[in-house]
Amino acid sequence: MTFSSNRPSGPGGRGRHRRGRRGGPHQGKQQGGQQHGGIYTAPMDHSYRAVLHGNGQGSNRRRHAGMGTQYLQPDPEPLPACHDALPPRIFAFVSDLFFVAKIQEIARKLNVKVEFVKTADEIFEKQQQNGNGEEKPSLIIFDLNNAAAKPLPTIQKLKAKLKKETAIIGFLSHVQGELKVKAQEAGCDTVLPRSAFSSNLPQLLRRHGAPDEAEAN
Fold first, then answer.
1. 201 — pLDDT class (breaks 50, 70, 90)
2. Closest CA relative to residue 119, chosen from 96, 151, 84
């Protein structure tokens, strides 16, 4: 009797033959992946799914939720053009070209006069030129990193003479906590990080640039 070594015998021979054909180096991969036209597609890793989910709807929800806490202030209305002829009420100890250009641009749009100075005596001289010296500036802006202006002693000198009638606002880097404390001790009414000062600049110039009612008349 002759037995064929290529065809297994018994009722389960065909099934065993198919299982044997699937066996091989790709058998373990087919359990998790897929094979299309001879091209193997690996199973998607759980961490990769998490990344895809983070870049999809979940991240959009978080992004929109975060944006909901940010409130953009509307641009203030410009002052009447005739106010541009009045003496300046705002002075700035600023030499950084970026902030100089920004202040000038916003002041022009709002019809507000801002004069850039280097010493406290320049402000006192302007007071005398514009009247009897009783009219005081409404706002003085300090770049607290403008070493040429000597911010701390200059603030002390200005505050001693102008008292509370003039607001003094300084700006600096958000990491300069020690300088912020020293500026407040010197008499600076408000100290802001650069970003906050920049975003609030239109409102500051509009509020302090508006002349008093008697002066406007």
1. very high
2. 151
- pTM over 0.90, yes/no: no
Backbone angles phi, psi at 49, to 5 degrees: -60, -40
Would you say residue 11 lies in a domain? no
Q: For the domain that residue 149 is a member of, what is the CATH number?
A: 3.40.50.2300
Residue 9 within a domain: no
Contact 183, 170 (CB under 8 A): yes
On the question of pLDDT at 147 being above 60, the answer is: yes
Give the side-chain half-sphere CA count within 13 A for 124.
Answer: 10
DSSP code, position 69: T
Scored b (16 or more CB within 10 A) or e, 27-50 reads: eeeeeeeeeeeeeeeeeeeeeeee
Segment 18-28 mean pLDDT: 48
Q: What is the DSSP letter of 33?
A: S
